Amino acid sequence: MTDISELAESERTLLLVDDDKPFLTRLERAMDKRGFIVSIADTVAGGLAAVKSNTPAFAVVDLRLEDGNGLAVVQALHEHRPDARAVVLTGYGNIATAVTAVKLGAVDYLAKPADADDIVKALLAGEEEIKPEPPENPMSADRVRWEHIQRVYELCDRNVSETARRLNMHRRTLQRILAKRAPR
């Protein structure tokens, strides 16, 4: 399936859950223009309430939200509607969370900022169809490494010594990496 307009109105419902309000607003407009009937939430609690009140056919959920993990919304969505298709967005991608997202029912896992066309392709790609092409400008290996270090640093409450221990690197090396700007 490649065209949303071929679906019945109840099958075009889309829930967007993200705490980045400008991104959420832009994505809402973009998806509305592409034929989806969009509802939005900016918290896990709001996403769960939207799933319970009117379970959508599609969902795009940010992984890290202010009040918790977006995977809770994906799990609730698939409990209420097993055929629903969800895409998880994140700025802190790693293999473990990607695997968890897929196990909970997500059909794809995209790095932020994701293009609306890429999101639509992921939502509408059937299991029998060929996977979407890789992005034109994927993150560099240096950027992926930097993102991972930043994520672990945040999870360790910005404690350099604890982060260095968990990453198995020297504290001074970590301090030098943290002092630099993010690679492109």
Please provide a written account of the structure:
Strand 1 (about 15), helix 1 and strand 2 (about 35-40) form a beta-alpha-beta unit. The strands form 2 sheets. A 5-stranded parallel beta sheet has the order 2-1-3-6-7, sandwiched between helices. A two-stranded antiparallel sheet has the order 4-5. The radius of gyration is 18 Å and the shape is elongated. The protein has 8 helices and 7 strands. About 45% of the residues lie in helices and about 15% in strands. It folds into 2 domains: about 5-125, Response regulator (Rossmann fold, 3-Layer(aba) Sandwich), CATH 3.40.50.2300; about 140-180, Homeodomain-like (Arc Repressor Mutant, subunit A, Orthogonal Bundle), CATH 1.10.10.60. The protein has helices spanning about 20-35, 45-55, 70-80, 95-105, 115-125, 140-155, 160-165, 170-180, and strands spanning about 15, 35-40, 60, 65, 70, 85-90, 105-110. Helix 2 packs parallel to helix 3 (about 70-80) and helix 7 (about 160-165) crosses helix 8 (about 170-180). By secondary structure, the protein is α/β, with parallel strands linked by helices.
Key features of this structure:
elongated, 2 domains, alpha/beta, two-stranded antiparallel ribbon, 7 strands, Arc Repressor Mutant, subunit A, Rossmann fold, 184 residues, 5-stranded parallel beta sheet
